[in-house]
């Protein structure tokens, strides 16, 4: 920047000119040759003091000593104060009692723990050797050595304080390291103890089980599937059923049951083909065949009575319960036995498009209701209970208290998986109960039962 620009710049300020004064000696008068540039300022008039005032202190400049003795004294004093202060600070933070850890005892706690033993004596020896080797910067000065080795004293105190601090730091570090190793060994020991505790408890439990006498294994009796209800058809019987199902025999009367006066044509027998609904003629004829089977072999079957499909319609008509409508159905002359002497009484129930079964179990004093769709209808069982009381009083002159009998809607029985096998399920409920067997069949057996029922109707003999 040029001198002209700096001169006219608003940020430039010209330096002030120095004023020079001539030093005057108060003892000597000014010479005529040296004249002050500015006139001497006159001393102001002193005010009158009306109260006590502090006198003005005049500080005079200390004269500079001529010798080096003062410098050495100040150095001695400063070094002495510093050494004293350092020594006091070192003594303040010095721990007299050292904490020791007996590592030999910890080695006996766990074999896995590895602890290094720190020898503190070696460190102290090294620190002492280092203190001996320390030299102060003042040791080379001849002036300091002349005053009794003050530098050596301060150096000794400084090294003493530093040595103490290094010693405590080393001890803290060693104790922290040992503590960490002990913590690690304790953690490993705790995990092993937990594993051992689990093994101990496991073996104790196993030992207690071995000491106890072993319970005898009781084999559950296997449900024996009877052979009679599942006798396969022969080839001749299969061919006969196939011919009966053919369309050429639709109008032909295949069989006639004389005692019940039921005729079975090919068209009526078609209800036993797959996916067809059973009709009243086939159901009623089959029930007649079951009754004949019992009469033929009374020892192999329960004493049962089989009502036809029209009984319940007569007993419970649109006008309600009507015992008189069915009073003559069970006379001694027609049946040859009293109804209350039977073990079981089967009543087919037709509910529009669905077949169900009601059972009067005289042997167990129960009223049962079986539905292949798990249906429930207490009205049916109540009507049958009333009928049984009226029948016993009418035919045998006995009063039966049916109020104590159980009414049970059976669950867990074989169920149909379609919309057309309800009639076949009802017939097989009757067949198996009359044999005194459990209901050990399912939906998979329905095609076989249809062909077997057709074969038995064609032969007019239930097996």
Automatic annotation (TrEMBL):
GO molecular function annotation: deSUMOylase activity
Highest taxon above the source species: Eukaryota
Ubiquitin-like protease family profile domain segment(s): 262-433
Region of interest (Disordered), ranges: 15-54, 122-146
Keywords: Hydrolase, Protease, Thiol protease, Ubl conjugation pathway
Record's compositionally biased regions (Low complexity): 23-38
Comp. bias intervals (Basic residues): 39-49
GO biological process: protein desumoylation; proteolysis
Bias-annotated ranges (Acidic residues): 122-132
SUPFAM superfamilies (UniProt xref): Cysteine proteinases (SSF54001)
Family statement drawn from the similarity comment of this UniProt entry: Belongs to the peptidase C48 family.
Protein name: Ubiquitin-like-specific protease ESD4 isoform X1
The species this protein was found in: Raphanus sativus (Radish)
Protein encoded by which gene: LOC108830707
């Amino acid at each position: 920047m040029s001198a002209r620009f700096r001169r006219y710049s608003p940020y430039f300020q010209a330096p002030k000119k120095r004023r020079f004064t001539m030093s005057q000696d108060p003892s000597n008068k000014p010479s005529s040759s040296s004249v002050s540039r500015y006139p001497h300022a006159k001393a102001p008039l002193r005010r009158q003091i009306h109260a006590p005032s502090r006198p003005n202190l005049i500080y005079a400049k200390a004269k500079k000593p001529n010798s080096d003795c003062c410098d050495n004294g100040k150095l001695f004093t400063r070094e002495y104060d510093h050494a004293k202060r350092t020594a006091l600070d070192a003594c303040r933070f010095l721990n007299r009692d050292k904490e020791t850890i007996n590592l030999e005892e910890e080695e006996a706690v766990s074999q896995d723990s590895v602890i290094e033993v720190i020898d503190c004596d070696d460190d102290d020896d090294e620190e002492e050797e280092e203190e001996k080797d320390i030299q102060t910067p003042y040791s080379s000065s001849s002036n300091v050595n002349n005053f009794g080795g003050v530098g050596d004293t301060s150096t000794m105190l400084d090294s003493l304080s530093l040595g103490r601090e290094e010693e405590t730091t080393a001890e803290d570090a060693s104790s922290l390291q040992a503590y960490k190793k002990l913590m690690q060994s304790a953690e490993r020991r705790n995990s092993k103890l937990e594993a051992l505790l689990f093994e101990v408890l496991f073996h104790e439990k196993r030992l207690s089980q071995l000491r106890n006498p072993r319970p005898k294994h009781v084999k559950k009796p296997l449900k024996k599937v009877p052979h009679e209800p599942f006798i396969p058809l022969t080839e001749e019987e299969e061919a006969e059923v196939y011919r009966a199902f053919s369309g050429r025999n639709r109008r032909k009367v295949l069989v006639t049951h004389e005692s019940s006066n039921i005729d079975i044509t090919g068209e009526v027998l078609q209800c036993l083909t797959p996916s067809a609904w059973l009709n009243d003629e086939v159901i009623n004829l089959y029930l007649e065949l079951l009754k004949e089977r019992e009469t033929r072999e009374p020892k192999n079957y329960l004493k049962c009575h089989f009502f036809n499909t029209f009984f319940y319609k007569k007993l419970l008509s649109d006008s309600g319960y009507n015992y008189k409508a069915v009073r003559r159905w069970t006379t001694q002359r027609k049946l040859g036995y009293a109804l209350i002497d039977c073990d079981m009484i089967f009543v087919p129930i037709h509910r529009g498009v669905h077949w169900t079964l009601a059972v009067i179990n005289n042997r167990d004093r129960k009223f049962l209701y079986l539905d292949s769709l798990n249906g429930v209808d207490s009205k049916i069982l109540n009507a049958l209970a009333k009928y049984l009381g009226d029948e016993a009083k009418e035919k045998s002159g006995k009063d039966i208290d049916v109020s104590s009998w159980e009414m049970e809607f059976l669950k867990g029985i074989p169920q149909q998986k379609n919309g057309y096998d309800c009639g076949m399920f009802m017939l097989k409920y009757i067949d198996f109960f009359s044999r005194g067997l459990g209901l050990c069949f399912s939906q998979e057996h329905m095609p076989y039962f249809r062909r077997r029922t057709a074969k038995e109707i064609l032969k007019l003999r239930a097996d």
